[in-house]
Specification:
The chain has about 250 residues and is α/β, with parallel strands linked by helices. It has 3 domains: about 1-35, no CATH class; about 40-170, Rossmann fold, CATH 3.40.50; about 180-240, Orthogonal Bundle (Arc Repressor Mutant, subunit A). It has helices at about 10-25, 50-60, 75-85, 90-95, 100-110, 125-135, 145-155, 165-180, 190-200, 205-210, 215-230, 235-240, and strands spanning about 40-45, 65-70, 85-90, 115-120, 135-140, 160. A 6-stranded parallel beta sheet has the order 2-1-3-4-5-6, sandwiched between helices. α9 packs across α11 (about 215-230), α9 (about 190-200) packs across α12 (about 235-240) and α10 (about 205-210) packs across α11 (about 215-230). It is elongated, with a radius of gyration of 25 Å. The chain starts with 8 loop residues before the first helix and ends in a 5-residue tail after the last helix.
Length: about 250
């Protein structure tokens, strides 16, 4: 191939085209080198060892780049904003309490960012509402590496992701809610917390008696409010009295 003459106008034009094409992933001959767009992923989990495990798994994915991580909610929003992440992998241990408020805040700060939630047991009754509030996907912690990677790619592409197992559970849960009194849909622990709240016990007292952290008690309270469609502690007390609930 003849050498391009930079002094000739046509030669200078062809040289610029070659450079621009190379930057965009094209060869000068017109062949296309298509590569998937890089997914900028941010990780949030209160367990450092889990974060390191995720990083090792995701290091094998050429289209996923981890741009940051946090172990607490306090620094989450600011760091996500600075990292300009495409997808946030958010464990509910960091989001609770106040998950819905956090999802709305993240949506306001980073409208284009997709949020993929992880739950301890995959049975949080708030999951359908979370998907409607700002989350793009929902996974149980007990997932395979392949499922995690597939979920990240799917939500990054603009779709929503819920595992088949969870989708089935959501259907059964909704049927149960329609067919049974609200308090019968509570787990044993949730029912305990409900009764203790209704007797005027404080968070610290409930946590000490049940051997739980205040944060865990707060999570149970959030689930109770959602399942029973209540708003405040006063609503919990009134509900328990009206239904004559006892420990």
């Amino acid at each position: 191939m003849a050498r391009m003459d930079r002094r000739h106008p046509r030669g200078r034009y062809r040289l610029r085209c070659a450079r621009n094409s190379a930057r965009r992933g094209f060869s000068f001959s017109g062949a296309t080198a298509l590569q998937p767009p890089m997914i900028k992923l941010f990780l949030a989990d209160d367990r450092p060892v889990v974060l390191e495990g995720w990083k090792r798994i995701l290091a094998e994915c050429p289209d996923i780049c981890v741009v940051g991580d946090v172990t607490s909610r306090a620094e989450l929003v600011a760091k996500v904003r600075a990292a300009a992440a495409d997808v946030l992998l958010l464990d509910l241990s960091v989001a609770d309490p106040g998950t819905f408020e956090l999802l709305r805040q993240l949506k306001q700060e980073r409208p284009g960012m997709r949020v993929l939630l992880l739950s301890v047991d995959g049975q949080d009754p708030r999951a359908p509402e979370m998907l409607g509030t700002g989350a793009a996907g929902y996974l149980p912690r007990e997932h395979s590496p392949g499922e995690l990677i597939a979920a990240i790619r799917k939500v990054a592409g603009g779709a929503e992701y819920v595992s088949l197992t969870l989708a089935r559970k959501f259907v059964f849960q909704q049927r149960a809610v329609r067919e049974r009194p609200g308090y019968e849909t509570l787990s044993h622990r949730e029912y305990q917390v409900l009764c203790m709240f209704s007797s005027g016990r404080a968070f610290s007292e409930i946590a000490a008696e049940l051997g739980l952290s205040r944060k865990t008690v707060s999570t149970y309270r959030s689930r109770i409010l959602y399942k029973l469609r209540l708003t405040t502690n006063a609503d919990i007390i009134r509900y328990a009295v009206e239904h004559r609930l006892r420990p």
